[in-house]
Amino acid sequence: MITLDGKNLSLADLNIILNDNVKVELDNDAIELVKKSRLAVEKIVREDQTVYGINTGFGKFSDVKIAEVDTRKLQLHLIRSHACGVGAPFAEVVSRAMVVLRLNALLKGFSGIRIEVLERLAYMVNNRIHPVIPQQGSLGASGDLAPLSHLALVLIGEGFVWQKNEQVPAADVWQTHNLEPITLEAKEGLALINGTQAMTAQGVVNYLAASKLAYDSEWIAAMTMESLFGIVDAFHPSVHEARGYQEQMDVAERMRNWLAGSQLATKQGEKRVQDAYSLRCIPQIHGASWQVLNYVKEKLEIEINAATDNPLIFDDGDTVISGGNFHGQPIAFAMDFLKIGMAELANVSERRIERLVNPQLSEGLPAFLSPQPGLQSGAMILQYAAASLVSENKTLAHPASVDSIPSSANQEDHVSMGTIGSRHAYQIIENARRVLAIEAICAAQAVEYRGVEKMSKALYTKWQEVRAVVPTINEDRIFSEDVEKLADWLSPASH
């Protein structure tokens, strides 16, 4: 059980909530803050004070006063009208993350929402009631309005929920659980949808997948090193200490550990003086991607505990301020940075694949690792596929955050496009995983020509694991199936 209080949720906590189905509970102190905040909203409504989103319209309609009798209707109209998401839905794990993160943000006690609504969100997490949320339609400022509106629809008994990979009407699910849908009171609809939880939820899933893939990329690269008689001197600690980047030093250390005891890796001068950059510079290139991952982690751990709706209520309701914490620029930048870091892991992997399959570069390996060069093509088109994925990543890596289109009659005149960046980062990570799967297939094949008995003990274990998923290439076959199987095995969901 993880206790949510709006302040101390970590990525490690979130990981087990998402992937180990750990349940959540609400912190008692946070509950008291939520209740105080709600009393402030009720006072504003009772005294007919004019406060944005409580008794006014939204966006360009912020100057339109709403009568007390219509405050419920205002919230209902808000959710329905803003549920404009289109396209394929987010993965169910992203939807789960969205519910957890919105709940955690509202527990900070700045949003004026009733505790009953938060208890229902917790119930959704603990009973795996995950909204179906379309991916497209958010500008990443004024919050992720469209995606979060689809989340809120489920609370009011509308929209759809995932149940055994099928989309089921939310009303039917609440009936099954013997619960009535929530009727939203003043401010509550706005509190639910003003936030960055779509881009952040996808961002968290991205980070968890990317960090695993970054570790996997190192043993895969080490196996390629063995296949090409790579020179281990390049990983000497003194080289990396001389530059001073901790991430670079860490990668070099892990590469030394992977290659410890290898009879295939060489010393400088044994076969050649130095390797190509894609081998020699693994700590520098992969280490730089780890710097990106560390930056992304830092921003996500702030954002998952942030109050991102508007207005925010302070001092027991004496201070109510319309601000802009819903603006997704910090996460937009982080996701664009993540795109570049992961695209580069794929770029350098593809260059190593080329060295494994190109007979002019592969130190005597059969052309394209073919069991019968000429009669059989071997890994020739595997390299094509990797090159295609890498090229696609280059287009996806264009920063979403440099774009902005004004909305709401120019009231919202600068937006982050952070959700687009987050979605594209996910696509890049998926592509990069397939590129690294191709490198692993090629390296596992190549090292057999060298003699697996000469591998380091650690890499021999990895070679056995790869072979349990993808058999030796004794004859040309449908390699697409191999790539997908190994990419699935490399994904966080399989471990």
Structure write-up:
The protein has 18 helices and 9 strands. The chain has 495 residues and is mostly helical. The chain folds into 2 domains: 2-195, Fumarase C, Chain B, domain 1; 203-494, Up-down Bundle (Fumarase C, Chain A, domain 2), CATH 1.20.200. The model has no long low-confidence stretch (mean pLDDT 94). The protein starts with a strand and ends in a 5-residue tail after the last helix. The modification 2,3-didehydroalanine (Ser) is found at residue 142. Belongs to the PAL/histidase family. InterPro entries: Aromatic_Lyase (IPR001106), Fumarase/histidase_N (IPR024083), HutH (IPR005921), L-Aspartase-like (IPR008948), Phe/His_NH3-lyase_AS (IPR022313). Pathway: Amino-acid degradation; L-histidine degradation into L-glutamate; N-formimidoyl-L-glutamate from L-histidine: step 1/3.
